[in-house]
Amino acid sequence: xxxETRLDQWPDNSNTDTTPFCSKTFLARLCEQAERxxxxxxxxxxxxxxxxxxxxLPPSDEKPPLFPPVTPFYPWIKxxxxxxxxxxxxxxxNLLSVAYKNVVGTRRASWRIxxxxxxxxxxxxxxxxxxxxxxxxxxxxxxxxxxCQDVLDVLDESLIPKxxxxxxxxxxxxxxxxxxxxxxxxxxxxxxxxxxxxxHEAYKNATDVAQTDLTPTHPIRLGLALNFSxxxxxxxxxxxxxCHLAKQAFDDAIAELDSLSEESYRDxxxxxxxxxxxxxxxxxxDGNDAEGAAPKEDKPEEExxxxxxxxxxxxxxxxxxx
Length: 322
Description:
mainly alpha
């Protein structure tokens, strides 16, 4: 078996092999497909004893990760409110945003993959596999909840109270809305309702400030509109409101495109393209086109400048306009 083998190509041993070793091997493969390589070495060590299991070899030209393996989550970026003296500079806040985004982004991607696999295994009636997958999904959810809550604590207790400019207030309120949205993505029942309400309130606060302090072409205002519209579409299941918000932001920016500063041009036009892509996806004449496709979100600064992916996470809040 090679590292390219996917779960749906594995032999179904759920009814014939119920040994602990089989479960560990399955979990190791599950980790691999979810691209979760931190915190699973004991599982890999057990699984690699199997003569049929071939662990993936990294490409010879593979660069080392931006951050070292994490135990248990992200000690290299974790902050407590008292560690932040005053308002962060633009570079500092972007670095903080990107660091947390990298941590939470990998887990959101893993959660989506695992949830999809769980549905497939349920449809096949693989009770043993479903039990393993469900436990693993809950582990990811626990990690996500921990990361998001840490971000929200720093925002509420330090970053938002110390924000002085309109731009920084929009940035942090948007960030608060994003992390409540991430919680709502996997929560259920009252927890989901609480997270969704908090996300909506934060996005609304950011929008109120953005409309008075930032131009329609400002990358942070555009990124806010992009993520707020994704919230309406994915969390509140309100495609009409999502499309209205995205179209309004796009049209307002188009009307003032000539006044866009050169330093913000690339970032603003990239987010405008993402707004248009989502509008195309959401207003498709064939409803099936949008099924299973993740809307595009805004990416924090310092991330790769490559073209956004189909499941784009967040484009770059650019440097402030002059």
